[in-house]
Amino acid sequence: MLVTLSMVFCLVSDPTQCQTVNPLVPDDQPLTVSSCQIAGQIEGAKWVNEHPKHRLMRVRCTLGKQPREQGA
Predict the structure, then answer these.
(1) Whole-angstrom Cα distance, residue 41 to residue 7?
(2) CA angle, corner 62, sides to 66 and 64, nearest 5?
């Protein structure tokens, strides 16, 4: 079953400025419902390490294709 990981990051200095990130997952390592939240924590930590002015606000695992964009 296809599971899509999306994460919302906001600026620490202005929490109203947010962006959604959908990391690429290798085809040979597809996400499952149970592995998605763990992958979100790992990928989120990597992203914050590379973007220290941001904070991880939400991890979302959605069944199917990439979720519709909604207000972060």
Answers:
(1) 9
(2) 60
Give the predicted TM-score (pTM) of the model: 0.80
| Spatial contact of 59 and 44, defined as CB atoms under 8 Å apart | yes
What are the φ and ψ backbone dihedral angles of 19, each rounded to 5 degrees?
A: -145, 150
Residue pLDDT, tens place only, 2-50: 899 999 999 999 999 999 999 887 777 788 988 999 999 999 999 999 9
Residues 61, 11: Cα–Cα separation, whole Å: 22
Q: Are 69 and 20 in contact (CB under 8 A)?
A: yes
Q: Tell whether the torsion through CA atoms of 39, 48, 66 and 16 is positive or negative.
A: positive
